[in-house]
């Protein structure tokens, strides 16, 4: 069990130089953009434009702040992403461009190398308490959009601030989240391929 605090995230430029990313976690530790197995980050998008291309990578995008954006992926029609929408998965090696709906947005970006790891991202919105299902195997990361307390059985309680993350590789661990009002937590499940 490990807590990552938002103020400690590593900041780095986008691959295409168009903005800045706050890297929440990456595996293996210290991996760069060309050799990660999985990577989780937040980015501020201030203008319309193309996404960086990542060969062999699958990506899931969620809107954390702002009105949202419209994505055009390859020859497909535009997809509208908003803060209330469930996370959206798409291949990161297909030409993708974004148009902001209103103004600046902040997004959550989860990427995994297709031949080495799978991932799933779920947005949990709740008032009061929320219990998470057990995970048979893999790594679970919780990104808290608002302050919550996470109870992890014998491992204790963790006070999480806005955009803090908790990482656990204990697949069968039962977790209960509790917030003081309406709360949003993103649950990321990373499953290495055999």
UniProtKB/TrEMBL annotation:
Signal peptide: none annotated. Gene3D superfamilies: Jelly Rolls. InterPro entries: RmlC-like_jellyroll (IPR014710), RmlC_Cupin_sf (IPR011051), Uncharacterised_HutD/Ves (IPR010282). This is HutD-family protein.
